[in-house]
Amino acid sequence: xxxxxxxxxxxxxxxxxxxxxxxxxxxxxxxxxxxxxxxxxxxxxxxxxxxxxxxxxxxxxxxxxxxxxxxxxxxxxxxxxxxxxxxxxxxxxxxxxxxxxxxxxxxxxxxxxxxxxxxxxxxxxxxxxxxxxxxxxxxxxxxxxxxxxxxxxxxxxxxxxxxxxxxxxxxxxxxxxxxxxxxxxxxxxxxxxxxxxxxxxxxxxxxxxxxxxxxxxxxxxxxxxxxxxxxxxxxxxxxxxxxxxxxxxxxxxxxxxxxxxxxxxxxxxxxxxxxxxxxxxxxxxxxxxxxxxxxxxxxxxxxxxxxxxxxxxxxxxxxxxxxxxxxxxxxxxxxxxxxxxxxxxxxxxxxxxxxxxxxxxxxxxxxxxxxxxxxxxxxxxxxxxxxxxxxxxxxxxxxxxxxxxxxxxxxxxxxxxxxxxxxxxxxxxxxxxxxxxxxxxxxxxxxxxxxxxxxxxxxxxxxxxxxxxxxxxxxxxxxxxxxxxxxxxxxxxxxxxxxxxxxxxxxxxxxxxxxxxxxxxxxxxxxxxxxxxxxxxxxxxxxxxxxxxxxxxxxxxxxxxxxxxxxxxxxxxxxxxxxxxxxxxxxxxxxxxxxxxxxxxxxxxxxxxxxxxxxxxxxxxxxxxxxxxxxxxxxxxxxxxxxxxxxxxxxxxxxxxxxxxxxxxxxxxxxxxxxxxxxxxxxxxxxxxxxxxxxxxxxxxxxxxxxx
Length: 708
Description:
Elements: H1 7-14, H2 36-41, H3 57-66, H4 70-83, H5 87-93, H6 99-110, E1 113-114, E2 122-123, E3 137-141, E4 147-151, H7 158-167, E5 175-177, H8 180-190, H9 192-201, H10 203-206, H11 218-237, H12 239-259, H13 262-266, E6 292-298, H14 305-313, E7 322-329, H15 333-342, E8 349-354, H16 362-369, E9 377-381, E10 386-387, H17 391-401, E11 406-410, E12 413-415, H18 422-445, E13 456-459, H19 460-465, H20 476-486, E14 490-493, E15 498-500, H21 506-527, H22 531-538, H23 540-575, H24 586-609, H25 612-618, H26 625-645, E16 672-675, H27 681-684, E17 693-697
Parallel strand pairs: 1-5, 4-5, 6-7, 6-9, 7-8, 11-14, 12-15
Antiparallel strand pairs: 2-3, 3-4, 9-13, 10-15, 11-13, 16-17
């Protein structure tokens, strides 16, 4: 921390009041004081004598016991005022002390005991604390009906807390000092069952027709079966007429799907965000920096954890105003251990464990953790993500300056390993077309967006208002984007990207696309259960766009190889002299135009979304586009089969070595991580032995071997 502080500035800052409220969105975190002790812990305004100096004698004594120099204390005090946090939190975030050391020194100075909240201690009314910042005081009761109060006072409230103890000495036997993170863990532990049951049911509990728990309704199944039977009868009794009508309808629909993408290829791209405001400066009235929650669901991702934590730690947002939750399945011990090791000493990170059980889906894990998040804003990332450090600041700026009904922002996803394999190259081109051209154009028009599975920024209260994620939908992102639009909210895009790796192995790509296509089938059927209601909620233009974008993507996955095969057969017959060009019908010519236009439009969209350097590196993959779309058709056929027999099956996409084409690539090599013997064990062996023990594996933040 800087030592050259202006004391006048600090003293001036110290005299400012701390008004509540303000801002475009209501602040939901925090709890009104309900007892005299809570009033003592509340960061209230100072009296005139207390404003005379930056620290009281008691505060200086505590800082001295902690080994904090005066300059660092002043810097932390100024940061706490600027961010809306507290001095101790800023000192911990700066690495100048730990939460445990602070709690120990605080307890000794106050003459109280330090004690974590134990598993047998039940916080009174813990469910009411969900969605809020963990309180500074928790009343608990154990099986013996012993009541205690666990407190974690701030340095700012130290004098008031000491005065309270002097006035009420009988309370010393009941009060314990604990860490703020211990209170958060206790709330997590105590509400786990309630949150898990709610996450398992999610939308199906209160809005069954909005949930994919029932993938296909009986009426939809009957209509689909009737359509198949009608097509079979028509093909049997009038094959030529039926084929011509079906061919013509499919050709026209395919052409319409292409036409709606043309404006996206021609539009002027969004200018990259520059000169972003600092966090907190757009608040109405003084209220500090809003808390930003980050959720990441991890499953069998041991190797990705160190790199993920490093990427999230690099985000340009005050660490004391971050609420990062890494969500793991409770029976995935390897990933949970890797997370616990990586986040040690980072109180803004926390590990959330999800009890094992069906459905084993990412949205269920996110729904389980969502009530613990207390930020005004919330962003979702994946295990392999490396978000641009300024992404939170851009999203904050858009939320504060955007329309009043803005609920979600989608950041672009950029594939960084496109040159490694032709599959990842076409994946990169596909993402460039989607996230840098199509979705921004849809957002400008106010149309529904099919969100990507990561880098979705939300106003948390609005995410909760629409029910969170559907735990039974394997493409919960696409469904959520549509539900937000149906609820009257706007979904927009930002420009700061998230970098990630695409699969380089066919079997990994194939399983991932199967899950995506199956989820899109389910999502389309889900939102078409009540088409008239959907039309009323979206409007005619948005409804038509939804059909052309969503249904068009599903149908074209099957139609493209059929059209391509028909075209190749017709042209082959002409080439072999079995037919003449004049024998080709009008539909075949339209098919030829559609096929050429599809390839050309994909190239135009993706090329327009790429930088000059990306175009140079990826343009060699375009000749493989027909094969890529044929593979997509196979994945879609497999998805259709799974839709009938396993609609909720989540095929996990592995990252790291499992998805790389070259398993010997040193960038992805995994080495053991070593630690010293557990505390006290070396002494029992006699002496200061520091023998290393291999505890787990994982890459270094730079992606290479982990240091011993």
